[in-house]
Design goal:
Chain lengths: ~270, ~250
């Protein structure tokens, strides 16, 4: 009898603790300084450079992720082939790899002394210390978030819908472009938002692989880290912008796509 | 300005990392926040330090100072300059700092590289430099050296900076990976990198005075052990470990 009563109480209590734990650090960012102070410390060229660079690099990275990831996810969702499970696992691997390890791996692969270093140098493509290098790091860490979600969404499409399209004579390419993608759009947008959010917060891989230089490779998270030791209020201000932006991305997707957009499709995957 | 929430969060973080395990014995646990360039020397000293079990938190000196300002309380703070400990002392956060070591700034290049043979090469077109960020001692010393060059040459060197790293570890990494052609490091970092980077000495008149300061943090839980640690650094096992790692005595000692 008491156990039956206790269990719901325990559920509510654990949710309460979880919510408090998860929101307090983010709330504290806004409470530690006055809004006026935060705004004032954003008004310096370095902070705006960093935010602009973050916007630019995450935008390019997201475009590449969507362009490459959508067909790849379609293939993974609609075909079963030898090594399918392996391919899915490999795509997901960057999710669990620590960001600094991702940076070291990128250096070992496409750094100046890396496996493909000489080939890239011959092609005149420089990544380390370049904005392009930041984009490469972002694509590496963020693409699994999109591909996973896109694959789950494609797999959950009504098979009869796709069959009907083919019966009516549409090629697979046409079915993909005209039927599958439009119908999967909410899930794809949700996946894109997750990837964008991850890219916006990327720190370790960028620092290790691309370095940190204002206006070139110093994205907002790197600028926050630099300011932590010199100007804590400025670090808070940039953090507040990132929290607000990330929150807005998440909320926007939830509102636009309905309550099931993030939770639902993910659960099906 | 007080920031109790952030201070509490940081304090909780540090305490959490500590994980006060009562079974660890009666030896006190000494928590030391130290400049990254002290890693080899302090780990060697720590393993031989009898009065306490020393645990180290290595990062850029400026970042460690910022943590202390936010309410983090290690027992001891050791920095790669004297400015930061002096500032914390003036702010009433640490006891009076002691100078315990000297070091030499050098130009560091990847071991096998031929591109850079001296200061004159750093400003050449196409040279990529990785140096410490502003505020990190190794970055400030580097800027001090560059500032002593004729203005045009100094500007050329700074224009070749491709990355500003948060501590010496970042600079070492960029060099060993061949990402950067050169950077400024301490001679002890070159020694610790075990043959992966090579040092090129700076001309005497450009050499900045690199001094390390250490201070017991006010209100430190293990203040007595922290003071013993400092004593050993000045004259004892710690000083030996520092010498083995290539550090010099503090200037004037």
């Amino acid at each position: 009898m008491t156990a039956r009563r206790l269990f719901p109480i325990a559920l509510v209590a654990s949710l309460g603790v979880a919510l408090l734990f998860l929101t307090l650090p983010l709330l504290a960012i806004f409470l530690e300084s006055s809004p006026a102070e935060l705004l004032a410390s954003l008004d310096e060229p370095g902070a705006l450079d960093a935010l602009g660079l973050s916007l630019k690099t995450t935008g390019v990275a997201l475009a590449v992720i969507v362009a490459l990831g959508t067909p790849a996810a379609w293939l993974l969702a609609t075909r079963r082939f030898r090594g399918h499970a392996l391919a899915v696992t490999l795509v997901e691997l960057p999710l669990v790899v620590p960001p600094a390890v991702a940076g070291i791996g990128l250096l070992a692969a496409v750094g100046p002394q890396g496996l493909l270093g000489p080939a890239l140098e011959e092609a005149g493509l420089e990544l380390v210390f370049q904005t392009t290098g930041v984009v490469v790091a972002l694509i590496f860490v963020a693409s699994p978030f999109y591909v996973r979600q896109a694959q789950a969404t494609f797999a959950a499409l009504d098979p009869e819908l796709l069959a009907a399209s083919r019966t009516l004579g549409a090629s697979e390419a046409r079915t993909f472009a005209r039927v599958a993608v439009p119908n999967a759009l909410p899930g794809l947008v949700a996946g894109g938002a997750l990837a964008w959010g991850r890219a916006l917060g990327e720190f370790g891989a960028t620092l290790v692989f691309a370095g940190s230089l204002r206006g070139v490779t110093q994205t907002a998270p790197l600028a926050i880290y630099e300011r932590f030791s010199s100007d804590f209020t400025a670090a808070l201000a940039l953090s507040a912008v990132l929290v607000a932006a990330s929150g807005a991305i998440l909320l926007g997707v939830k509102l636009a796509m309905g309550p099931g957009a993030l939770g639902g499709a993910g659960a099906r995957g | 300005m007080k920031r109790p929430l952030v201070a509490a969060a940081l304090a909780a973080l540090v305490a959490g990392c500590g994980g006060d395990d009562p079974r660890a014995g009666d030896r006190p646990r000494l928590t030391v926040s130290a400049a990254t360039s002290l890693t080899t020397a302090f780990e060697s000293y720590g393993s031989r330090f009898a009065p306490a079990t020393a645990r180290f938190n290595f990062a850029g000196s400026d970042e460690l100072a910022a943590q202390i300002r936010q309410g983090v309380k290690p027992d001891l703070y050791a920095a790669a300059n004297t400015k930061l400990p002096d500032q914390l002392f003036e702010e009433g956060l640490v006891e009076e700092p002691v100078r315990f070591a000297g070091n030499r700034l050098v130009i560091a290049v990847p071991a096998g590289a031929q591109k850079i043979s001296g200061l004159a090469d750093l400003g050449r077109d196409g040279v990529q430099l990785a140096i410490g960020a502003e505020g990190v001692p190794v970055g400030d010393y580097a800027r001090e050296v560059v500032g002593r060059l004729p203005p045009a040459r100094g500007r050329a060197v700074l224009a070749n900076v491709r990355s500003e790293e948060p501590d010496v570890g970042g600079v070492v990494g960029k060099l060993t990976q061949g990402a950067a052609d050169a950077g400024f490091l301490y001679v002890t970092d070159v020694k610790a990198a075990e043959g992966q980077v090579k040092a090129i000495e700076l001309p005497r008149d450009l050499q900045p005075s690199v001094e390390y300061g250490v201070a017991v943090v006010k209100g430190a839980e293990e203040a007595p052990a922290a003071r013993e640690f400092v004593e050993g650094l000045l004259d004892g096992v710690g000083r030996e470990a520092m010498r083995d790692a290539g550090f010099e005595p503090p200037p004037g000692r």
